[in-house]
Amino acid sequence: MAGTELIDRARAGDGEAFRALTEPHRRELQVHCYRMLGSFQDAEDALQDTLLDAWRGLGGFDGRASIRTWLYRIATNRCLSALRTAARRPAKAWDIPGVEPPEPTRLGEVVWLEPYPDTLLEGAFAVPLGPEARYEQSEAISLAFVTALQLLPPRQVAVLVLRDVLGFPASDVAAMLDTTVDSVKSALKRARAGLRHREPGNPPAGAAIVADFVRAWEDADIAALVALLTDDVFMSMPPLPLEYEGRDVVAGFCARLFGAGRRFDLVPTRANGQPAFGAYLRAPSGARHGTGLYVLTLARDGIRAMTRFENSVLPAFGLPRSLPEVSRRRT
């Protein structure tokens, strides 16, 4: 068989054969690591470690499971090790000059959260899910779902993702985690009970809502922006821990930004299956510097959540750190 031949060649040190074995699974493994870790950079590091472990350990592959299952075992345990040993990105203090933030509704716990570029999702979901999967792929990559996973104990995260997202049988998950089927079932029950997240929207009028948001944000039109927000709209800004919930509270936050004279141009992209925008601050000189990335969660009646990330994430989305200067400031 071609697969057996590739394995034999890879065991003999053929790098091209190893890449042929692992490349079809690379994207889905990266998404798996991202779900578990919540950080795009941490997921890329875990993926590289997974491939290195697989290269070094291919001699121990006994063929009883598929290459894909074997790789998921390595990736899952790499992520669990990272969660046990790595210091997560710490919270940052407010650092926007000239703007005093309002009192937050609460302080967020998942300050290490990073967005995942939709361009890297292509091919990640090509393999059919197992029959016991409970989540749509688009839901299982949403910011709300990934954030909720970060609040569970690590082994519960692993079990829930492997069972409910990917649909692996309990026996396979038990083998991946070196535990028993009963332990997997128990962990899954606790994970399901502890998982709390908002369902991502998929409204028919989503394109119109997004277009109206761009106009309102670029024009600093608070009234138009407020009209787009749901009553329970939620705003977060990792790695800042400040979180705001409710239309009036979020509107007040945005009013402070615009009231300080900050004006933006938005460049569209997509993150976590959701509309997103690189935000570029206009300067009186005509310069436009990237200040961050906004990701929107939509509902049928408007914008349910806004998540703002730092400008350090822009390169992962193919966005520049600054836009070409304009001859005069837009009005």
Automatic annotation (TrEMBL):
A single BP term in Gene Ontology: DNA-templated transcription initiation
Molecular-function GO term, any one: sigma factor activity
SUPFAM superfamilies reported in the protein's UniProt record: NTF2-like, Sigma2 domain of RNA polymerase sigma factors, Sigma3 and sigma4 domains of RNA polymerase sigma factors
Pfam families in UniProt: Sigma70_r2, Sigma70_r4_2, SnoaL_2
Keyword Transcription recorded: yes
Record InterPro entries: NTF2-like_dom_sf, RNA_pol_sigma-70-like, RNA_pol_sigma-70_dom, RNA_pol_sigma-G_actinobac, RNA_pol_sigma70_r2, RNA_pol_sigma70_r4_t2, RNA_pol_sigma_r2, RNA_pol_sigma_r3/r4-like
The SnoaL-like domain, residue ranges: 210-280
Transcription regulation as UniProt keyword: yes
Residues covered by the RNA polymerase sigma factor 70 region 4 type domain: 144-193
Domain of life: Bacteria
Gene3D superfamilies named among the record's database cross-references: 1.10.1740.10, 3.10.450.50, Winged helix-like DNA-binding domain superfamily/Winged helix DNA-binding domain
Limits of the RNA polymerase sigma-70 region domain: 23-89
Keywords from the named record: Sigma factor, Transcription, Transcription regulation
NCBIfam families: PRK08241.1, sigma70-ECF, SigX5
Similarity field: Belongs to the sigma-70 factor family. ECF subfamily.
Protein name: Sigma-70 family RNA polymerase sigma factor
The species this protein was found in: Amycolatopsis iheyensis
Native organism taxonomy: Bacteria, Bacillati, Actinomycetota, Actinomycetes, Pseudonocardiales
